[in-house]
Design goal:
Layout lengths: L1 E8 L7 H10 L3 E2 L6 E4 L6 H15 L4 E8 L4
């Protein structure tokens, strides 16, 4: 399972893209190219409650950084 993350940046303030990258990489995300900006690899299996708790961590980590984000978790990349 993998969780994909898309970021929308705000140029009117907040953190720079490199600051956001550093924060996300500290959570275990890796930057990727394509329709998503980052991916987190869970390995073979994860339950929905772990995904929700991880979403909370992402939310807290990006709080006050001036971004909007979208998380999507699936077994395979679209």
């Amino acid at each position: 399972m993998k969780t994909y993350l898309m970021i929308w940046y705000n140029s009117d303030g907040g953190a720079t893209p490199s600051e956001i990258k550093n924060r996300l990489m500290s959570l275990g995300f890796q930057p990727i190219q394509g329709p998503y900006d980052y991916v987190y690899d869970w390995g073979d299996n994860v339950d929905v409650y772990e995904i929700l708790e991880f979403g909370d961590k992402v939310h807290l980590s990006l709080q006050d950084m001036g971004v909007i984000f979208k998380l999507e978790t699936s077994e395979s990349y679209h």
